[in-house]
Specification:
Length: about 475
Amino acid sequence: MATRSDSPAGRRAPTPCPAHCPPSRSPALATPDRTPAPAGPPRIGFVSLGCPKATVDSEHILTRLRAEGYAITPSYDGAQLVIVNTCGFIDAAVEESLEAIGEALAANGRVVVTGCLGARADLIRAAHPRVLAVTGPHDLDAVMAAVHRELPAPHDPFLDLVPPQGVRLTPRHYAYLKVSEGCNHRCTFCIIPSLRGDLVSRPLGDILTEAERLVEAGVREILVIAQDTSAYGLDLRYRPDFWKGRPLTSDLVTLARTLGELPAWVRMHYVYPYPHVDALIPLMAEGVILPYLDMPLQHGAERVLKAMHRPAAAERVLERLERWRSACPELILRSTFIVGFPGETAAEFECLLDFIRAARLDRVGCFPYSPVAGAAANELPDPVPEEVKQERLARFMEIQAQISRDKLAQRIGQRLTVLVDEVDDDEVIARSVGDAPEIDGVVVIPGAWELDPGDFIEVVVTDSGDHDLWAEPVED
Ligand code: SF4
């Protein structure tokens, strides 16, 4: 497996993102483009940091590079230029991005920087004055302009080397599908809207065409992502679009229902708790999309939620969860929370603990508040001391781990359909509908089995842990 120092053509473990993006439990590194590079074309190395949204941006850049005839190389010294797609959400991510740029400069010397941290070009140039160009997030044209300037494209582009589904960094059997960019909310702990702008939804027909190509190329699971997936279509005023001659409304439910017609799992991520999300639950109960909802809730105390500029009625959230579970008993709920938000009192933290005890969510990420430069919340009074944040984080995770253990133990004896991720000599790693790749648990199937990544199989659960399940195949 590649590491950053020996392979720039890769995706590093996502940096924890308190807004939406939980950390990877098992760092997933590059699946470099396996198409053999021709001897002649200009060679580019690529380092991709950050969350799945940044991964999709990287895939778009890589796709365009290959479409224009550039070769993607898996080593710094084989590259004539290195592109670093950065993350800039929290201070740790900024440091990691600056370090990656420094490493690429030291190893190669010719570096173009893009991504979220690219919005802070002054900071990058102050740390690394030798970078050739800095572009902001989601700016494919600016990245390509910088590449053309520094390393002109070959005269005859190798268009036939580019697969129709584009170049992807995820394994062949699952893919992220970005449906919109930017966000209209102004959560006070988050600077994503200032980095990526307001909501811009992709045309529905384009999304569905991309999804269909992915499935034709072997994708068995589509992970729908955006900064705010549930806002899909708002900026388009839900206008009609066409796919295969069918008129369709550009809204979340139509998107989900139509994706559900494809022969693949469809998993919804980063869903803001709007009321219309209720309409997804029947689609889950009918098996159109996976009964899995990734909904960042952030806190359980009303005053803290208001200070975050988030929807504030925790008891209404609990009522909704109950309604959803009675309509779709298989529903798996994932969420993320922040502890130690400025001004969070001991009583408000207890209120958060009460909330997670009552909500009994299946998958939970929790982050200590990180004062991201530029976030409005940094101006709030009464910052919580670091050691208090860490102590609250530990208490939160202890309670949630027990909830997770209890819920997983209830699955022993159940029959599940799982999707195979990895096949090793002595075990198979798979995932159930309740496990999103990289962030949730897995289903471990001990033994040697003749299976391939991307296979669906039936198993019976034999054991459980804090996050993972163990199972054996069902022989029908
Ligand atoms: S909803 Fe928008 S502003 Fe709020 S955390 Fe998510 S990306 Fe940031």
